[in-house]
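Researcher: Please translate sequence to structure tokens.
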Amino acid sequence: MNDHWYEDGLGALWSPYCQMKTAPPPLPVVATRGCRIVLADGRELIDGVSSWWSACHGYNHPHILERVRDQLAVMPHVMFGGLVHEPAAVLAKRLIAIAPAAMSRVFFSDSGSTAVEVALKIALQYHKNLGRAGRERFLCFSDGYHGDTLGAMSVSDPEASMHRAFRDVVMKQFVVDLPRDAAEVRALDNLLAEKASRIAAVIIEPLVQGAGGMRFHSAEVLAAVRELARRHGLLFIADEIATGFWRTGGRFACEQAGVAPDIVCLGKALTGGVIGLGATLATDEVFQAFLSDDPEFALMHGPTFMANPLACTAANASLDLFETEPRREQARAIAAELRAGLEPCRGMPGVVDVRVTGAVGVVQLDTAIDVRALRPRFVERGVWVRPFKDIVYLTPPFVIRPDELDRLTEAVREVVAGAGV
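Model: Translation complete:
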């Protein structure tokens, strides 16, 4: 290892989600273990965001590492076009068995964004294959976020999301506020009655809109939107990339509302945060629309690293842990501890809301956060937290110890209470 890798390489890197001219340099990481990130100077930070919601089992879980090492020695990768391998076949069957609806097929890709891209293409072509011309747009929601690729950006909030620079470039969709009461549900029903012939699908982050601002909505709202999609002949796409695998309190957020999607997107915690992998699940009704003697009916999509054996192996090992370790109970315990630990922020100056659902805790402020000022304050307290927009949020690994979670919530309370927030 080059002892000068940080100094030598930093000037060649382009970091995500920041203005490179003014952003502070990133922190050099040399190791991870459990719920901690180890810095080059020996400091350890308790990870409060699970590496963007993905490291749900903590870092370096021995079961996942052992399985991946075994697979690495046999077959790190092979193309999926015309070939198949055991890790992918086993994983597909397991995902179908636990999916929040009667799914029939799984299309693997290499990230959450591409899982969404696949879902959008499936929805568009589904209607085309059935001879329904003109269904070329999507209904999506304000404060929504579905990824950074071009199609995913188009179904994210065009104004409030980080993709404003592309709002005049991406395909224009029907973007509406999530309905909150019966009157707003009726208004959406009326809109769909007028526009449904142009819409292929509804796409939603069930229960929690993540990067759009950690906005929560009820199971009743989710069920109402699903029913409207059914009523107007639209496919219902559930983006469970961030909300799935017990993060919102159930195995999948849709299950908590008794909602059966037509298409489900998975990622993040799917592999326990070890390797990138996306999965798009579809019902048999959707899949059947692509079966024909005409090659034009086929889904023409195939990422090079689709169904990578290492990633599928990591995902199978992650599912093992969801089956054998008490993730549901841990998520519920984290929820209770987040409520107790964050609730004192409610009375602090500048705080407009404190909310928790599942293992997601949010403190919302009345103004946009000075991220450059706040992040170092968290690091000084030995925790890694990434506030954005007007919120400070926690999505810790499910295996976090009570004392580690206490340090996280204590840090949030201290930083939010500090001057200059």
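Researcher: Any highlights?
Model: The longest strand covers residues 103-109.
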